[in-house]
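Could someone model adenosine-5'-triphosphate with this protein?
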Amino acid sequence: MAEEILKVEHLNKFYGDWQALHDISFDLKKGEVVTLLGPSGSGKSTLIRTLNGLEDFKDGAIYFKGEKVDPSPKTWQGLRQKIGMVFQSYDLFPNLTVMDNILLAPTKVQNRPREEVKKEAMELLERVQLADQADSYPRQLSGGQKQRIAIVRALAMHPELMLFDEVTASLDPEMVRGVLNIVKELSDRDHMTMIIVTHEMNFASQIADKVLFLEDGKILEQTPGKQFFEHPQTERAKEFLSSMDF
Ligand SMILES: Nc1ncnc2c1ncn2[C@@H]1O[C@H](COP(=O)(O)OP(=O)(O)OP(=O)(O)O)[C@@H](O)[C@H]1O
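Reply:
Sure, complex below.
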């Protein structure tokens, strides 16, 4: 049986007195892809950010590879080396070249030799068809190119889990497919374990091993991907899918 990468148990998250996540429980095995779906404001970003220590949580537990995560900043610093995250907003350093953006964390945080990481970074850039942009600055790139670099930068850390938070939401339509294809290939070819927040339903239906459908901070459905898209169980999920033209 595949190794368990993540387990979330009865997680509750508050912003002040207001509860944003209610009793969230799920698990994720090595190589599995989970997509978080649900209407705007249902808590998808909050959940994915909590899994990377960007948000604290009140009670419940998160286990990474069987070990309970002690929610202190120091623990998360260590774990973030194993959990790669790509956001809607790229977050590349504007004053660094593409290559230096990629090299920064592996060389400074993981202390890996610069030449070794550079060689690997070039291979990754070739893979996303951006090897010729290694010396460019982020401002010289299109949104789709920046997002492909952000993915490469996360991969250069050798993550065991990748989190994607609406990575195509800011892109022009013609850029979306290129970025989604890279994410799909990470699953098909590298068997990367991933949690993906997306509004791209066709993509979600192709990639999801499991869907968590959220509303008002609660998981309303937790089902295998195929089943969710073909036979959603709740009325809310049916309405959601038809509102997304699926
Ligand atoms: N920092 C914050 N402080 C207070 N409330 C917040 C904060 N961040 C998010 N929220 C609230 O938490 C709820 C869930 O927001 P979240 O961004 O997680 O939803 P989402 O499902 O990702 O939505 P979308 O699809 O629009 O991105 C919303 O009601 C939002 O207003």
